[in-house]
Description:
The chain folds into 3 domains: 4-283, Rossmann fold, CATH 3.40.50; 314-411, Four Helix Bundle (Hemerythrin (Met), subunit A) (Up-down Bundle), CATH 1.20.120.640; 417-466. α11 (340-358) packs antiparallel against α12 (363-381). The strands form 5 sheets. It has a 4-stranded parallel β-sheet with strand order 4-3-9-10, sandwiched between helices. By secondary structure, the protein is an alpha/beta fold. The protein has helices spanning 39-57, 73-82, 86-103, 119-131, 160-167, 205-217, 231-246, 277-283, 286-293, 306-331, 340-358, 363-381, 388-404, 419-434, 438-450, and strands at 4-7, 12-15, 23-28, 61-66, 135-138, 141-144, 181-186, 201-203, 221-227, 251-257, 260-262, 265-266, 302-304, 453-458, 461-466. It is elongated. The protein contains 15 helices and 15 strands.
Amino acid sequence: MSIQLYNTLTRKKEKLEPLEPGKIRMYVCGPTVYNHIHIGNARAFLVFDVIRRYLEYRGYDVTYVQNFTDVDDKLIRTAEDMGKTVPEVADQFIASYQEDTEALGVKKADVHPRVTEHIDEIISFIKQLVDKGVAYEVDGDVYFDTEKFPEYGKLSHQNIDELKAGARIDVNEKKKNPLDFALWKKAKPGEIAWDSPWGKGRPGWHIECSAMSMKYLGESFDIHAGGTDLCFPHHENEIAQSESLTEKPMARYWLHNGFLNINNEKMSKSLGNFLTAKDLIQQYSPQLIRFFMLTAHYRHPINFSEELLEQAEKGRERITNVIENLEHRKQASLDGELDVDEQKKIEKAREKFIAEMDDDFNTPNAITVIFELVKDANHYLRRPQVNRQTIQAYLDMIHELTGVLGLEFNENKDEALLDEEIEKLIEERTEARIQKNYARADEIRDLLKSKGIVLEDTPQGVRWRRET
């Protein structure tokens, strides 16, 4: 079966057919780094990370580019408020982004281009648009002429006449057309600026992604992705300026993830329900957050609430518990032939997982397949006799499938105690009690308890067991 993905441009699922066989070139719109990312941003970066991982799992060589917008109006205002320079603000919040996304298991892009490092490419791009007659300069500002791109609106499927009517509410007298958008902005006194053929200024927002994606992925590439809120005007404007210049399709497939709501309400500062990823990571396990985000299809809205997060935690615990039980039972099991019937169930799980992910990256259904595999593993463990080979086959498949989703269930593996280590600690605790060093004895008991080891003092000595 081939991968099918929903293309916003055509409003239908299409077969994935890369421009170059075996290779995927993918661009994802990154953050404007004037603040910590919020959990809606985090959802976008996380779900497209999963799509990248799955494409790699299916054998594609993926080139993944995600930008940082490190100069714009918001950065300038934040810099003024903080008493810092724009580059200082950008550096601070790029570091914050990297910290938060790393915690959430998001892999770094192959390239993370910054706008301020690509001013020459952006100026060259704009100059070519002016030379082609599809952009014009007015008093140091440069605008794209949307009337010169007949297909304007094809991505967002907007009614252009309605857009024009709405745009006239905020009329800019410099523009020929209310839908025309800035490619280059004339610098105001004291603002960060660069020299250009039109005077000192800085890039408009939309031109940045066109210039950087073209530099690293070419005039046409496979996948362009971002949040639903970027479909219009950002991605629409990218298409207009890129395709006007190259006269080629900018991207073959356009993917957009759905919104994230808080307790069934749109997240906003005015409602007091604005959550940064950093806030959430301090309250909950980053892996739990990741698991929760994947319980909804990436294109659908997802509702965040403590109740839903608790449900996700129960789901994670099912997988965690079976892994621990398999590992523990494996240590006490003998070698033997891989059970043929169990092997068929295990291989079937991979097939079903791939079928679900091939269908527009359906992570909730893929997680259901993993739960079915967990159920089969638990049934196997109830047998009076099991063997290491079959147990290991279950473990390998569970880790393989969860790993494709970037989910980890062995985050405490390095902290787990082997039987020999437990016995040594118990001996040390016994010796401490003999020496009347009760503080050390209690410390060892607490350590073992934190690792899920329960001690029982009996007349025959200390016994221990792992919590189930």
